[in-house]
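Reopening: Diaminopimelate decarboxylase still failing for me.
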Amino acid sequence: MTPKPVIAAFGSQNGQLTVGGIPVERLAERVGSTPFFAYDRGLLTTRVELLRATLPAGIELSYAMKANPMPAVVQHISGLVDSIDVASALEMQTALDTPLTASHISFAGPGKTDQELSQAVAAGVTIELESASEAARVVSAGDRLGLRPRVAIRVNPDFQVKGSGMRMGGGPQQFGVDVEQVPALLTDLASADVELLGFHVFAGSQNLHADILAEAQRKTVELVLALADKSLSPIRYLNLGGGFGIPYFDKDQPLDLEAIGDNLSALLTDEIRPNLPDARVVMELGRYIVGECGVYITRIVDRKVSRGRNYVVVDGGMHHQLAASGNFGQVIRRNYPLAVANKIDVPVDESVTVVGCLCTPLDLLGDNVDLPRSEVGDLVALFQAGAYGLTASPTAFLGHPAPAEILV
Ligand SMILES: *Cc1c(COP(=O)(O)O)cnc(C)c1O
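Support: Ran it again with your exact input. Result attached.
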């Protein structure tokens, strides 16, 4: 039996899953307790190398930190990508702690407070404007501080991207300025003391369809070039979004990155460079960079049979890895890949339901999964846990301790 690709990517030694080359039992001893999240440094590096090798050289890579803001992970990634996109003042501080300069940090997201806007202006990061009133507040923050804010307009496009796990553009949105309202905002900004760098379009997340993403990129370029024509200042920054998905479930096919690369290459050569030779062109990715590089390790604390069904109870759960329980934006609950991490080579011989330690039926981690026979004390690994894991989970729910996170 060949292990699933996601499991094979981590590797194994003497029947144990390895992370960063270290067998999980030893890693658990090093951490001192379970459960914990482990992120594989080598896999992160390989992932960005794959992006660099497949996307054209003129495309800059930005890391969308909300996918995984663990400081050590962000530090490591900061050495691989060109820039970081943040969505809160705390994320901004983490990004500023890396060697990247403020000019390569962008701050997106609705509901930025006056204080956050002032912090961003003082830091010198690029503020991605989500509304006309936010733009006005940035201008006053700049006036008050005697600094010239660096801004880009986040545009809510007039098209939708089908097949995204989460849609964040097209139709009415809390994100960005509707494209039809952008010309008026450009006029306002032309007379304000701000440095308008360009445009940002991010229309959706978790998309596995290269053809749909390519079409969205083509429409995005068309839209930003039309807007660039209307801008009074030269456009130096085009953030084309991202939305690259990763396979979570058995039937998911990995994204065809080659096709995306070919499309971006054609867009750069035929559309962008002839019109905007000097603009930085950015793809902004979160989950595609980190999602597959992380694993959540739990230990079995109990087993029982209830009316013919085998239950395996682990010491972790949805309070740390909400997405694996199916409660983070999924419509239909399906199992994330999981394995008995210290019995990687043992053949499958039972079907079990893996549940977490929370006293709620929502805490279901694996429904009728085929696994090797496991015992109390064995380790269960939940994969695809590198993005939207710990920080996207209700850690205070039921009051269990927070898990450790390590970069190996
Ligand atoms: C969340 C977010 C991303 C990252 O999405 P992924 O699916 O993790 O790649 C990128 N840009 C913006 C503006 C976001 O809000």
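The domain at 69-285 is CATH 3.20.20.10 (TIM Barrel). If you still see a failure, please send the error message rather than a screenshot.
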